[in-house]
Amino acid sequence: MSSELEVLEKIWENEGESSIKLISNQTRFGLDYVRYICNSLIRKGQVKSTGKRGWYKITAKGEKDLTLRGVIKTEVSRRVGGIKKVILPWSRKLLMPKPPKIELKSKLLPFEERKLKLGKRIEKAASFLRRV
């Protein structure tokens, strides 16, 4: 588990708001390291600083990240015709990995361009030769 995820999880477990000292005691990380991680989470928008010094609060983006990683397990269920239907908080499209886009570009140049480049090379080489 990454350190950022562990700190985010500890903030969530402390009712969505926690101090650096409390997080440090729970995770057994140093105070400066926890402060550094919290600052990086602020840059990502997953945590925001509260008015109190050294206190951080989880944002909606942080909750969504924890939900997608499976730390927060939320299920919404409803009965449809006597059958219990479970609705996940995220869509199936987010769970399916996207195939990588492959662009094939030919490295071969048309014959005319190759001929021109060869001609430029010869002209450049000839310009360095001395006339006798």
Short description:
It is built from 6 helices and 5 strands, in the order H-E-H-H-E-E-H-E-E-H-H. By secondary structure, it is an alpha+beta fold.
How would you describe this structure to a colleague?
The protein has a single domain, classed as Winged helix-like DNA-binding domain superfamily/Winged helix DNA-binding domain (Arc Repressor Mutant, subunit A), CATH 1.10.10.10. The chain has 6 helices and 5 strands; from the N terminus they run αβααββαββαα. The chain has helices at residues 3-13, 20-27, 31-44, 60-69, 92-95, 111-128, and strands at 17-19, 47-49, 55-58, 76-80, 83-87. The mean pLDDT is 77. The strands form 2 sheets. Strands 1-3-2 form a 3-stranded antiparallel sheet. Strands 4-5 form a two-stranded antiparallel ribbon. The chain has 132 residues and is α+β, with helices and mostly antiparallel strands.
Descriptive labels:
alpha+beta, Arc Repressor Mutant, subunit A, 3-stranded antiparallel sheet, 6 helices, 5 strands
Structural category is alpha+beta
Principal-axis shape equals flat
The overall strand count is 5
Please report which band the strand proportion falls in: under 5%, 5-15%, 15-25%, 25-35%, 35-45% or over 45%: 15-25%
Q: What order do the strands of the largest sheet run in, or round the barrel if closed?
A: 1-3-2
Largest sheet: 3 strands, antiparallel
CATH class type:
Mainly Alpha
CATH topology, what is it called?
Arc Repressor Mutant, subunit A
Q: How many separate domains?
A: 1
Which regions are unreliable across 5 or more consecutive residues at pLDDT < 50? none
Total helical elements = 6
Percent of residues in helices comes to 40-55%
For the record, the CATH architecture stands as: Orthogonal Bundle
The gyration radius over C-alpha positions equals: 29 Å
